[in-house]
């Protein structure tokens, strides 16, 4: 960071205390969930708050098997990466087209894409569902993946567009002079160079798809096809699930994003950086 | 983004854009259009559509639930300045080079990472009248706060958690990166002049990241109008009563809880107008930025 | 020649086998592991035995209201299960377009069902209209009480506090003895209690609410609303219970011995069997409603002719088999297994009574023989329950509405 500072030593201690308080406040709900997941229903009735006196793993077993969370997790783990691949293909190609290619309708089309980044899923849900059912894609991986890609691509495209725009045109020029086709330029030259940004939209796209609810709620009707996020959202409608079991389900659901976070921490940081600088 | 001279790339760009444009046409453009059409009909979501002209809009304007949803959304909008101020402040604090600032930045990001569904369910347990937070409050001598069972408090719970707390983490990363671009010289000059933390914050930092702040505000507007559903669905189902019933939730409720899809589409059109306005604002900001 | 005949025979055999190998997909909101899954698996196995070559694909779906969202989604896709469970009444009528008329399939068993149940499963409740769901249970609401706790509080366990004054006094005594007077599930506790009180307010004329001959502006309804408000204000209805997120939380709490009284159901969950099995059959008492001194009617048992049942979807390719499946659950062995395992009350008079001594059940059966009042909730539109519950929240839980405002809004809901 910087060498000069505007904060005195004494104030620094205060700041640390303040930040620590924020951290504790932030993590307290999560601590509660973890602690509850290890208790039996009886213990939870008596001791909802402190660490468990006799921790059990039954809740996890129930959540994973009887409540099907393991099956849902597997669905998510398969669906999201596949969707991600399609998403990246669409965003990179479109981003390159907007960022580096020249064509008359570029500006109006780009504005259109920007305009469409905002709409909430609820606005589209009924009609999207009708579309999916007309195409006989309800309950299918393809149906939900197409929807996710369609919905999340505009934003990814926008990010890739700004990145490609800022890349020096000379690279493209050089490749063209070498006689390369647009596809070759994209695949062999631009994509490798854009790796940092691609990693960024990959993370954004992953998070978006993993946590998506409204579309999955309607498209994935069978238990067999549900995602983890959907499973958690629906638990409120299930009979007979108490807080400890629900907490175990939450811990399972939290595990994947947290693991991914610790692995890809740096990339996420760089990503928001790009957002800030590009605006 | 200027086209260099008159040399065009022929048909290739359109081929590259085809997948995206086809998907957008089918999954976003067409649905919005169909919503417009459906808003003039009475329809169950399947079967026949019955044309009823402006009846849905008339009913909507005299529907108390509609106006409640607007006012609830307005309350959430009021949390945007709170979020902005807090995030910029904490970012500036972290920027001072405290020990472990990276750890703080990482930990604060976790709520954002977990996603609205998990956060919603966690807080539906945590904020109950007999939940852990109320237990803590009672231990400290206070009385039960009806986070989820009082409509006036509930909507604020939504604001505090989803608008402020969840976005803090993302905002920190965002603003820290933006603040990195501040001219070190100006900053040091201010310090030499004897400026304290808050003065440098107000006179140097904030003006330097003006664009970043503007974009952050627009981003939050989008979040409030268009990305609250998953959280509210898992937290309170729009309740108690209509306490956390926002415009987004109303669309869901009319369409999928009452099965009045035509009516729900009328509400959708209102939301569409808000989103369109925000989108235009965002595009204008971007144009100003790049010039 | 011989080779050809053999080939033909093999092909015919394969075709027959293919035809006989049918799968029936069934959607259910009662198939959860803590719900009716076990008896249903038994019944399905029996059905598969009796119909060789048939496989039942029984799918557990979440409960209301998500269940009906999924049904609606299936309707707009015109594809989905062969058989689906429904709540007769507004829910069923709202989906009449996608349900098959079962009348031709049930001519041989129709007389086994009570008239009330047949009326309720007929579209719009009109006798003679198409019957689109076969009733498996009849439903109702009432107040269960824990006799041990009554003794502890100094109340006579054999004398349920049936009058308004006695009820309030009983609550006060329970509270004084440190017992939660009425365990609360969620807002549905108030919803159920209101339905019990409405039964006394309108008696046999409840259906008048639908055609406008009766209104919620009746002073007896107002009395009921204010009575519930008193219960909330005095803390007899445990306030903390309203933010419990799950339907079963309150039921499990009462079954675990955490309150003096609970407004429960007659069939399926939260009923006489569930509580008797957990707290001791001799320990559970029951009374159907609270009597007001100026009320025209007393001790009305609020009942729904039919609680749940299966219907056949119009897009099903196995309609005959699907109809047979719904019959299997509503009559004969299927109905018997379901009723005895879950404590559901069957509207099928040919299904036998229960083994085992359940005093609470005996009490209920006596009331059922007496004055029955129709439950008003299933009379109104598909989705009415959501609107009604939000209104109840606003007057009883959040206090946003006054009693009069609530009554006006409640009336507006049904005079759309």
Tell me about this structure.
- The complex is a heterotrimer of chains A (279), B (291) and C (416).
- Helix content of chain A is 76%, strand content 0%.
- Chain A has helices spanning 9-37, 41-46, 58-66, 69-100, 106-115, 121-134, 141-166, 169-177, 182-193, 195-210, 214-219, 228-234, 243-278.
- In chain A, helix 4 packs across helix 10 (195-210), helix 4 packs across helix 12 (228-234) and helix 7 packs antiparallel against helix 10 (195-210).
- Chain A starts with 8 loop residues before the first helix and ends with a helix.
- In chain A, 51% of the residues are buried.
- The model of chain A has no long low-confidence stretch (mean pLDDT 84).
- Chain B is mainly alpha-helical.
- Chain B has one domain: MetI-like (MetI-like fold), CATH 1.10.3720.10.
- Helix content of chain B is 74%, strand content 1%.
- Chain B has twelve helices and two strands, in the order H-E-E-H-H-H-H-H-H-H-H-H-H-H.
- In chain B, strands 1-2 form a two-stranded antiparallel ribbon.
- Chain B is globular, with a radius of gyration of 23 Å.
- Chain C has 416 residues and is an alpha/beta fold.
- Helix content of chain C is 45%, strand content 12%.
- Chain C is globular, with a radius of gyration of 23 Å.
- The interface between A and B is large, with 101 and 113 residues.
């Amino acid at each position: 960071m910087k060498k000069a500072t505007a904060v005195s030593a004494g104030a620094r201690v205060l700041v640390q205390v303040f930040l620590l308080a924020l951290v504790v406040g932030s993590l307290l709900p999560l601590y509660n969930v973890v602690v509850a997941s290890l208790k039996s229903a009886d213990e939870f009735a008596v001791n909802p708050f402190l660490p468990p006196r006799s921790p059990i793993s039954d809740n996890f077993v129930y959540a994973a098997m009887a409540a099907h969370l393991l099956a849902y997790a597997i669905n998510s783990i398969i669906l999201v990466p596949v969707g991600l691949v399609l998403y990246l293909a669409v965003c990179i190609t479109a981003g390159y087209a907007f960022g580096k290619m020249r064509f008359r309708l570029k500006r109006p089309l780009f504005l259109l894409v920007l305009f469409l980044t905002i709409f909430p899923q609820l606005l589209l849900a009924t009609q999207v569902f009708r579309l999916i059912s007309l195409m006989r894609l309800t309950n299918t991986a393809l149906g939900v993946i197409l929807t996710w890609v369609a919905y999340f691509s505009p934003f990814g495209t926008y990010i890739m567009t700004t990145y490609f725009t800022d890349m020096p045109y000379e690279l493209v020029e050089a490749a063209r002079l070498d006689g390369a086709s647009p596809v070759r330029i994209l695949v062999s030259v631009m994509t490798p160079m854009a790796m940092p940004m691609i990693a960024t939209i990959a993370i954004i796209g992953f998070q978006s798809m993993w946590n998506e609810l409204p579309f999955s709620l309607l498209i994935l009707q069978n238990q067999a096809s549900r995602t983890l996020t959907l499973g958690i959202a629906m638990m409120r409608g299930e009979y007979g699930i108490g807080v400890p079991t629900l907490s175990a389900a939450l811990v399972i659901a939290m595990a994947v994003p947290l693991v991914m976070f610790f692995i890809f921490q740096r990339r996420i940081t760089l990503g928001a950086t790009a957002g800030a600088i590009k605006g | 983004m200027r086209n260099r001279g008159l040399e065009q790339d022929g048909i290739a760009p359109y081929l590259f854009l085809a997948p995206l444009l086809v998907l957008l046409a089918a999954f976003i453009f067409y649905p919005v259009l169909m919503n417009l059409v459906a808003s003039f009909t009475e329809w169950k979501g399947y079967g026949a559509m019955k044309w009823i002209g402006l009846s849905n809009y008339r009913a909507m304007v005299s529907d108390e639930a509609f106006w409640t949803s607007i006012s609830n959304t307005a309350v959430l909008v009021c949390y945007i300045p709170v979020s902005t101020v807090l995030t910029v402040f904490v970012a500036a604090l972290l920027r001072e080079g405290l020990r472990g600032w990276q750890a703080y930045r990482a930990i604060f990001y976790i709520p954002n990472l977990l996603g609205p569904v998990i956060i919603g369910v966690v807080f539906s347990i945590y904020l109950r009248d007999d939940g852990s937070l109320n237990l803590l409050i009672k231990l400290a001598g206070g009385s039960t706060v009806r986070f989820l069972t009082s409509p006036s408090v509930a909507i604020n719970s939504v604001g505090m958690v989803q608008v402020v707390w969840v976005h803090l983490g993302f905002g920190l990363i965002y603003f820290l990166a933006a603040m990195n671009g501040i001219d070190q010289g100006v900053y040091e000059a201010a310090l030499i002049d004897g400026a304290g933390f808050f003065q440098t914050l107000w006179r140097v930092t904030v003006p330097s990241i003006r664009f970043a702040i503007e974009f952050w505000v627009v981003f939050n507007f989008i979040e409030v109008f268009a990305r609250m559903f998953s959280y509210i669905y898992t937290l309170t189902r729009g309740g108690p009563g209509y306490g956390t019933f926002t415009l987004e939730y109303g669309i869901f409720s009319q369409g999928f809880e009452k099965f009045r899809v035509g009516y729900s589409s009328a509400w959708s059109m209102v939301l569409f107008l808000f989103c369109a306005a925000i989108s235009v604002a965002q595009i204008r900001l971007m144009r100003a930025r790049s010039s | 020649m011989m080779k050809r005949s053999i080939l033909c025979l093999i092909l015919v055999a394969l075709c027959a086998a293919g035809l006989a190998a049918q799968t029936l997909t069934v959607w259910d909101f009662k198939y959860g592991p803590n719900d009716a899954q076990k008896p249903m698996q038994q019944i399905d196995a029996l059905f598969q035995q009796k119909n060789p070559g048939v496989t039942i694909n029984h799918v557990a779906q979440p409960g209301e209201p998500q269940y009906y969202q999924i049904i609606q989604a299936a309707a707009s896709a015109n594809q989905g299960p062969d058989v689906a469970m429904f709540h007769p009444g507004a829910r069923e009528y709202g989906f009449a377009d996608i349900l098959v008329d079962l009348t031709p399939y049930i001519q041989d068993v129709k007389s086994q069902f009570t008239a009330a149940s047949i009326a309720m499963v007929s579209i719009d409740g009109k006798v003679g209209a198409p019957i689109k769901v076969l009733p498996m249970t009849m439903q109702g609401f009432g107040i269960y009480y824990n006799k041990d706790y009554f003794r502890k509080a100094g109340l006579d366990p054999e004398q349920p506090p049936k009058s308004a004054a006695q009820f309030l006094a009983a609550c006060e005594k329970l509270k004084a003895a440190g017992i939660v007077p009425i365990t609360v599930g969620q807002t549905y506790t108030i919803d159920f209690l209101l339905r019990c009180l409405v039964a006394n307010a309108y008696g046999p004329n409840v259906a008048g609410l639908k055609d406008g001959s009766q209104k919620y502006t009746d002073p007896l309804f107002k009395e009921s609303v204010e009575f519930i408000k008193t219960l909330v204000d005095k803390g007899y209805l445990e306030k903390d219970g309203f933010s419990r997120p799950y339907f079963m939380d309150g039921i499990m709490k009462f079954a675990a011995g955490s309150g003096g009284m609970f407004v429960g159901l007659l069939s399926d969950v939260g009923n006489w069997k569930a509580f008797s099995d957990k707290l001791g059959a001799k320990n559970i008492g029951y009374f159907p409603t609270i009597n007001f001194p100026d009320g025209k009617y007393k001790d009305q048992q609020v009942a729904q002719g039919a609680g749940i049942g299966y219907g056949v979807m119009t897009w099903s390719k196995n309609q005959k088999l699907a109809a047979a499946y719904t019959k299997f659950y509503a009559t004969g062995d299927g109905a018997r297994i379901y009723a005895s395992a879950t404590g559901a009350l069957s509207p099928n008079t040919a299904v036998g009574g229960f083994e085992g001594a359940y005093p609470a059940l005996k009490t209920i059966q006596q009331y059922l023989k007496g004055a029955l009042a129709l439950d008003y909730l299933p009379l109104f539109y598909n989705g009415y329950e959501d609107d009604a519950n939000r209104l109840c929240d606003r007057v009883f839980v959040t206090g946003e509405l006054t009693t009069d405002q609530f009554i006006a809004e409640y009336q507006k809901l049904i005079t759309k």
